[in-house]
């Protein structure tokens, strides 16, 4: 009898079909086999946010830190991109020993994705499992930069409390205040101002204007009038 194909396993994982996955494994399927697109079952289940399928695959021996061949993302990274909190810490990936510090090809970590997309619960879990809040991607962008640009107040607060470097700059010389201003985030910008973050640095995207002037250019003239949110 011919063993099930990688395509069958990956299709079942993509649909979150635990019963089918179990059936295929009993028939001799390799749950770590790649399909024609280079995907494996655990990556697809995590990307879809199917925590029961992810849990079953982990228990069945799936490699937790396998990387997607296209962008180098791990199941942990995909789960954070999708905001799939149950996949990350529902007794599955983090508790199962997945590498919270794994990076994709652009140097981005799970914490960076969770911060950029505004998932405070995922950010907190990543921090609890010792993800570095000061880590930077290939462009020097940190989790705090991503959160600031997106205007994610709760995430910014969690990162600062977790030890994020307020004045860290990316490759263009922009710090979190610049990102908050460029993203037109009045609340976050005000919080950074009250936190005495350096606001006189050069911001390449603002043609060398300080972030407060950049915010004014974006018509966020109420920047200094907003009460502290941090």
From TrEMBL:
Keyword Repeat included in the entry's annotation: yes
Pfam annotation, one family: Ank_2
PROSITE patterns noted in UniProt: ANK_REP_REGION, ANK_REPEAT
Keyword Repeat attributed: yes
Gene3D superfamilies: Ankyrin repeat-containing domain
Superkingdom of this protein's organism: Eukaryota
Keywords per UniProt: ANK repeat, Repeat
Chain positions of ANK repeats: 37-69, 106-138, 139-171
The protein, known as: Ankyrin repeat-containing domain protein
Record organism: Tribonema minus
